[in-house]
Structure formats: structure tokens, C-alpha cells
Amino acid sequence: MSAIGVLGVFGRNDMRQIRRDSMLVGVFAGPLIYAAALWFVPALTRYAVRAWDVDLTPYYSLIVSAAAVIGPALVIGSLAGLLLLEEKDQRTLSALRVTPLPPSAYPLYRGLVTVALATVYTVAVLALSRLASAEVILAGVPVGVTCGMVAIVVSLLIAGPAGNKVEGLAIGKAIGLPFAIIPMGAFFLTGSPWEAAFGVLPPYWPAKALWSAWEGGTIWPYVLGGLAYNTLLIAVLLRLFRGRLG
């Protein structure tokens, strides 16, 4: 079977699972909801200035990174993790071992789709937010790729230890707080020696890259660092996931 044929088979299977599960449809639509929510940020900023004399403008990059980077990474990673659990329940992954497909075909497909979706969502949310400049939207492409690597990490953290989708959702909620909230603390410690400690959490890297792009700085140390670090995590988690398949 050609590479295009393999992509077609896996893609049709994914769409079939998403269409028949309303929970997965809701997860898939999540990042678009984030983008719509950002439309109210300017109005909220005007209200904060009038009511409390607080200007939210310096925090726009932080607010947007939550919706354009961390949100898509968690949502798409959760979706990929739930699909992995569905395929594990149906023994699809075990069945693939006796097909002519190379062992790397499915992991490569799942990884490429996850990265592609995360990149599209990151750029789309930035563009639809009405807050990001053209330069930041363009920087969203490499930032989105790094975000996609984070999504793969999330998917493997969910699918590895979980036995079913209910357990997967519980694990997703458990990792959601540290992945969504804690990296935001680095925004307030820029330049501090303590900032480097946040790099332990995968979402820090694409978020920091976006903050740097917003300020007109370079993104590449954070993009490349995030790609390297998350690739290492993926290699370890994928090995553990395969071990659980038996």
C-alpha cells in the first residue's frame, strides 16, 4: 500500500470515530471557541481601565498564548490520546502488527496529523483573535509545530497509563492544571534565573516563543529547544506505551 493509501485508511478511521462520538466532536471544536473568546478581550480591557484603572494590554501575549498555544496543545493532545485509547480497546494497534505496514507507519501518521492540527489551530487562533500582528501570526507556524509536539506528549501521557476513555479523561484533567497554569508563571519571571525551571513543563517552550515573537524578539532558541526536549519526552513515552501493548 502506498503512503497516500495508508494516510487515507487511517484518516477515514479517525473521522468515523470522531463522528460517532459527540465528546470527541466537542474536543475537536474547543480551540475555535478559544478564538471567539479572544474577541472580547479589548472590551474587557476598556472595562478594566474604567473600573479599576488596570491596563491589560501588557498581558495580551499571555492571554493569547493560553488560547493559541496551550489550549490547542491540551485539546488536540487529549483528542489524539482518546483516539489512541479507542484503537487500543478495539485492538486496532495489535492488528496492525500482522499487516504489511512498517511498524513506524501508524506512529508517524498519528504524530504528523497531531502536529499539523496543532499548527493550523495555533495560526488560526492567532489570526482570528484580532490581537496578533502579521509578524506574530507568521511566527505562529514554527510555534504551532512546537505546540504539536507538546500535544503528542499529552496524548501519550493520557493513552499510556489509561485503560479506557473514562480513565483517559481523568488523566487529562489531572495533567491539565500543571500544563495549563504553571507555565504561565514564567511570564512574570522573564529574565529571572527561576524562569529556566519552567522549561521542565513542555508547554513552556511554545508559549515562551510566542511571548518573544509578540515583543519582536527571536523565537528560535525556544522553538528549537522545545522541539528537542519534547522529542526526547515522546521517545520515552512511546517506548512505555508500546510496552503496555504487550
Give your account of this protein's structure.
The protein has 246 residues and is an all-alpha fold. The protein has one domain. Helices cover 75% and strands 0% of the residues. The chain contains 10 helices and no strands. It is globular. The protein starts with a helix and ends with a helix. The mean pLDDT is 85.
Provide a compact summary of the structure.
With about 250 residues, the chain is mainly alpha-helical. It has helices spanning about 5-20, 20-40, 40-50, 60-90, 90-95, 105-130, 135-160, 165-180, 205-215, 220-245. The longest helix is centred in the N-terminal third of the chain and has 30 residues, at about 60-90.
How would you summarize the topology of this molecule?
Blueprint (H helix, E strand, L loop, with lengths): L2 H17 L2 H17 L2 H12 L7 H30 L2 H4 L9 H25 L4 H26 L5 H16 L23 H11 L5 H26 L1
Helix pairs in contact: 2-4, 2-6, 4-6, 4-7, 4-8, 4-9, 6-7, 7-8, 7-9, 7-10, 9-10
Beta-strand portion reads under 5%
**Total beta strand runs:** 0
Q: Structurally, how many domains make up the residues?
A: 1
Going by helix content, strand content and strand pairing, the class is: mainly alpha
Key descriptive features of the protein:
mainly alpha; about 250 residues; globular
